[in-house]
């Protein structure tokens, strides 16, 4: 079956249209980072940035070059904790959410 639409474009449009979906993806990205799955978390954050604030505005708000931010949120990216905190902070403000971590015992 041939896809008639680019997947990233579809996700970006849904993120713009549905604030709750954007918040859920933000939550998923933060959870993935905390659970040791940074590769997937970075890709989700990249899609969120593209659909919400954009890399140019993210660069202005974090004081980091847009090109560096693109690399950080790429498949092989490796943002420092300071850079990740800055990115999450900008997205958190844009989406109007707070981050709160809870420990859950493994079954």
Structure description:
The structure is a single chain. The chain is mainly α and 107 residues long. The protein has one domain. The chain contains 6 helices and no strands. Helix 1 (7-17) packs across helix 3 (38-51). The longest helix has 16 residues, at 19-34.
Defining traits:
single chain; 107 residues; mainly alpha
SSE inventory with pairings:
Blueprint: H1 7-17, H2 19-34, H3 38-51, H4 55-62, H5 66-72, H6 81-95
Helix pairs in contact: 1-2, 1-3, 2-3, 2-6, 4-5
Summarize the entry for a quick read:
This protein has 107 residues and is mainly α.
Strand content: under 5%
Task: State the distance separating the first and last CA atoms.
Answer: 40 Å
Please describe the biggest sheet, giving its number of strands, its sense, and whether it closes into a barrel: none
Indicate how many domains the architecture comprises.
1
Q: Low-confidence spans: pLDDT under 50, at least 5 residues? A: none
> How many beta-strand segments?
0
